Amino acid sequence: MSLVSIDQIHKYYGENHVLKGVDLKVAPGEVVSIIGRSGSGKSTLLRCINGLEAYQQGAIVVDSQAVEDDEYKLRLLSRSVGMVFQNFNLFPHMTAGENVMLAPKLVLGQDSKTSRAHAQELLEKVGLGDKFDAYPNNLSGGQQQRVAIARSLAMSPKVLLCDEITSALDPELVGEVLKVLEQLKAEGMTLILVTHEMNFARDVGDTVVFMHQGKVWETGPSDEVFASPQTSELQSFISAVL
Amino acid sequence: MMQFSDWDILRNLLLAARWTLLLSLIAFTGGGLVGLCLTLARSLRNPLISGFIKAYVELFQGTPLLMQLFLAFFGLSLIGIDVDPWTAAGLSLTLFSSAFLHEIWRGCIDALPKGQWEACRTLGLSYLQTMRYVILPQALRIAIAPTVGFSVQIVKGTALASIIGFVELTKAGTMLNNATFQPFKVFAMVAVLYFIICYPLSLFAKHLENKTHVTR
Question: Residue B78 burial (CB < 10 Å; 0-12/13-18/19+)?
Answer without folding.
Answer: exposed
